[in-house]
Specification:
The protein is an all-alpha fold. Helix content is 82%, strand content 0%. It contains 4 helices and no strands. Helix 1 runs antiparallel to helix 2. The radius of gyration is 35 Å and the shape is rod-shaped. It starts with a helix and ends with a helix.
């Protein structure tokens, strides 16, 4: 029975990793869905603001026409003013559209970054689960094949190393190999 304990611990570690993976993947999908809803809300908000702006501009044009007519001057003399008001109205509409598109792009970008973070956390969780499982099996001695491979590596390393502290891989540099001068 004690021989099964390391495998149970390893299975639990893998299960935790898979569960974390699934939760983070679900959060990534949730972020995308929330972003789509926020973009739809921004588009509705833009159409409402645009209709309000157009209505206000229509009211302002009417007021300007009445004021010009009430001044006693000929209506032709106010053409420059009316043209300037129309140009300003077009700029206001363009600014409103730009603001809405910028907000939508910010929502998309932030959602993409957050989704990528969740996907990275999902992968990390999965790797952590498998790493913990392997570590618990290795430390309990349940992976005898890996242990013998490790022993062979130690034997070869000891035979080829000149260090009294044990084998170090020498990559052609004493600083990288762990030898101190």
């Amino acid at each position: 029975m004690p021989a099964l304990l390391p495998f149970a611990i390893a299975a639990f570690s893998v299960l935790q990793g898979v569960q974390g993976y699934q939760q983070n993947q679900a959060m990534a999908k949730s972020v995308k869905a929330q972003a789509a809803a926020n973009i739809a809300n921004e588009q509705k908000s833009y159409s409402i603001k645009k209709s309000q702006l157009l209505r206000q501009q229509e009211i302002d044009r009417g007021k300007a026409t009445v004021a010009a007519a009430g001044s006693g001057a000929t209506l032709g003399s106010f053409d420059t003013l009316f043209d300037d008001n129309a140009s300003q109205g077009l700029m206001d509409q363009a600014l409103l559209e730009y603001d809405s598109k910028l907000t939508q792009e910010n929502i998309r970008y932030n959602a993409a970054v957050e989704s990528a973070n969740y996907k990275q956390a999902a992968t990390s969780s999965l790797l952590k689960g498998f790493g913990s499982a392997f570590g618990s099996l290795y430390s309990s001695g349940s992976l005898s094949g890996s242990q013998s491979s490790f022993s062979v590596g130690q034997t070869i390393g000891s035979a080829t190393s000149s260090s009294k502290f044990g084998p170090f891989l020498n990559y052609g540099s004493r600083a990288l190999s762990g030898y101190s001068t």
